């Protein structure tokens, strides 16, 4: 049974300290990782519980950021060692990027543990992390209403079998267009989505970055455009932010009707578009519900005929 | 004054016999060129006049295709020599392509002449063709209500000055995203559109192929998605088809209000999505108004929240 202090949405994923270089600027040791972006985005819509791991170098300033979003940290483990670190450099197009270094550190032996207060959560987002860890989380939840999983090319390459097992057990898979093609060995995105849906999930969201996203489900197709931001500062975590806001909205609404799902994707697009306007969670920290509402109105006006 | 036999929409552009190779098939001497695609697409919405040139090798079968669309051919010149020929090969993504050969032939000395019955046309589409020829057409029209021009990277490279003159004299410029970036030397598409609008046109349409198009104008931004076709056979001419259908719809409606423009772009997306399902004009030849109407309903359902 759900208790008052139980969280409605739980997100698992990576926590990283990122070094990011864009054509305009280089920044070091930025708070990042899929669960950081996703929880921050989801927090605008209700209580969200985080499952992740950090090292002893994860200082109070980073913790303070999580606390500013009111994220429930009962599932956050702090262990001996260094936090996961990633560094990458973006091309001039601010889309393609090269990974310069990946240091797993405390991630290497991470085993996600769901606190008791998370186990009856009705909404679960398995953020981008090794499929084996996603499965481990799935094994600890009690009949959630809606589980979404995100993934990336790395896992398709090195852990396809486990990933297919995850895909077979979730309600929605989110991934980007090139990953959908890699996973299915097909090019046309409708065909990709159809193939993935046959692997299990009722819903597939194909993310296309600045070109928006496509929702495939039993009620047909929904095309959500990306909000065209005037200046992208750092696209890192945009997909995680999108997924987090989408799941936060669903948990807030408490249903996954076609109309709610479509509106959830719009919220994902809006929050993600704010997120890329600054490095790390910097823009999300200052973001207000009225900023989200205003841009939602603006985006819907751009879609209206 | 407009007479009963006058056409409401005139389109100028290239007529070519194309040799096209996709990853799946190679086809030769296909009827193509910007004005062929644009006029065929526009013909679903009313009478359209064609301004172009062909050689003596342009046989009755090709002419019969134009006649099937009911295109007014008073502005079509047939001269001694061979028709313009283009050949290209598409990458596996069916988007990027390499031009293998371009033979200007009769195009080299082409000077577009507007028949008397075209000169009072209220809607003009300057299809993709040398800016100098677009200017020549502009010099022969009498106060049209709405002039749109399309262009391509070639003219930005070799005829920028004349192209800028064209841009300064039209109501709308349509071009694709990479061309917008090339023309303005900016990356962000909102900035590109703003810069182009400062060069003259009230409206800029940035075409993004399978990712749709963006309309920038005094009433804000409209994001039209591409209809996701199940199988692309040949993307050649999709941009011309889009522009032709859009202008055909505007001429049919007889106004360029924001709402009409948005609906015109939707029609452009729908007709273009049909066009890429076959080589040349093959799909447009079999297309019916009810096919267009049905896919328009389908596309709008994919945009509805």
Molecular structure report:
The structure is a homodimer of 305-residue chains. Chain A is α/β, with parallel strands linked by helices. Chain A has one domain: UDP-N-acetylmuramoyl-L-alanine:D-glutamate ligase, CATH 3.40.1190.20. Chain A is built from eleven helices and 13 strands. Chain A has a nine-stranded mixed sheet with strand order 5-4-1-8-9-10-11-12-13, with helices on both faces. In chain A, strands 3-2-6-7 form a four-stranded mixed sheet. In chain A, α1 runs parallel beside α8 and α6 crosses α7. The longest helix of chain A is centred in the C-terminal third of the chain and has 18 residues. At the A-B interface, α7, β13, α9 and α11 of A face α7, β13, α9 and α11 of B.
Give structural attributes.
homodimer; 305 residues; 11 helices; 13 strands; UDP-N-acetylmuramoyl-L-alanine:D-glutamate ligase; alpha/beta; nine-stranded mixed sheet
Blueprint of the fold:
Two copies of one chain form a homodimer.
Chain A: E1 9-12, E2 16-21, E3 26-32, H1 34-42, E4 48-54, H2 60-68, E5 72-78, E6 84-90, E7 97-103, E8 123-126, H3 131-138, E9 146-150, H4 153-158, H5 160-167, E10 172-176, H6 177-184, H7 189-198, E11 203-207, E12 213-217, E13 220-224, H8 238-253, H9 258-275, H10 282-286, H11 289-303
Parallel strand pairs in A: 1-4, 1-8, 2-6, 4-5, 8-9, 9-10, 10-11
Antiparallel strand pairs in A: 2-3, 6-7, 11-12, 12-13
Helix pairs in contact in A: 1-8, 3-5, 6-7, 8-9, 9-11
């Amino acid at each position: 049974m759900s208790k008052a202090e139980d969280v409605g949405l739980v997100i698992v994923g990576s926590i990283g300290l990122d070094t990011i270089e864009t054509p305009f600027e280089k920044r070091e040791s930025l708070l990042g990782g899929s669960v950081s972006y996703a929880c921050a985005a989801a927090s605008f819509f209700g209580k969200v519980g985080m499952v992740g791991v950090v090292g002893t170098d994860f200082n109070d300033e980073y913790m303070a950021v999580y606390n500013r979003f009111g994220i429930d940290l009962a599932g956050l483990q702090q262990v001996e060692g260094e936090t996961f670190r990633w560094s990458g450099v973006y091309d001039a197009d601010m889309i393609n990027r090269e990974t310069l270094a990946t240091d797993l550190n405390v991630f290497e032996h991470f085993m996600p543990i769901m606190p008791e207060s998370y186990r009856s959560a009705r909404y679960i987002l398995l953020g981008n992390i090794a499929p084996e860890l996603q499965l481990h989380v799935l094994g600890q939840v009690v009949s959630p209403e809606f589980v979404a999983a995100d993934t990336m090319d790395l896992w398709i390459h090195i852990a396809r079998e486990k990933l297919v097992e995850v895909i077979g057990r979730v309600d929605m898979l989110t991934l980007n267009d090139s990953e959908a093609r890699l996973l299915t060995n097909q090019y046309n995105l409708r065909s990709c989505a159809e193939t993935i849906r046959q692997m299990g999930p009722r819903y597939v969201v194909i993310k296309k970055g600045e070109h928006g996203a496509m929702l495939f489900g039993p009620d047909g197709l929904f095309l959500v455009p990306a909000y065209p931001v005037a200046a992208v500062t750092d696209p890192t975590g945009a997909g995680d932010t999108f997924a987090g806001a989408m799941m936060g909205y669903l948990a807030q609404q408490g249903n996954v009707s076609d109309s709610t799902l479509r509106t959830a994707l719009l919220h994902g697009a809006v929050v993600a578009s704010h997120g890329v306007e600054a490095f790390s969670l910097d823009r999300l920290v200052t973001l207000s519900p009225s900023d989200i509402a205003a841009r939602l109105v603006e985006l819907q006006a751009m879609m209206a005929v």
